[in-house]
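With this grant's support, we have paired protein sequences with backbone structure tokens. One protein thus recorded is set out beneath this paragraph:

_____
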Amino acid sequence: MIAKDHGHLVTIASIVGTLPAAGLVEYCASKFAAVGLHESITMELKTLNTTGVHTTLVQPTLIDTGMFKGVKFIHAPLTPQLVADRVVHAVQTNQQVICIPGILWILQFLKSILPFSFWIWFGRVTGGNTAMDTYVGRTKKDS
């Protein structure tokens, strides 16, 4: 991509890549890593003055894939089709970061100015700290 100065790198992370959640330590850590990798690659590309290679970081909440079956969350899971449509649109319009739903931008901004103790409280009042308590997981389909 760099040699041809053309292409688009899309990183599908999660909102828990910047806003941690209780009960998801390993998952959050992997998504924080994905965000860090994405931001580092983007910085490298900008430092190399590439103009034709673009990057998009996708940070959705729960997507209804069955992976988090049983989780009780503040809103219904996103449909895979909705997320796919937003990703395609983001690539077509060269958006650097998208949060799905868009309201998550506000939370990301607040994370940069509020103390961590606020997020512990926020997790309690929104149910985010106990969302995984009802987790069932993906069930294996008989072949």
Q: What stands out?
A: The first strand starts at residue 7 and ends at 12. Helices lie at 25-47, 80-92, 104-111, 116-126.
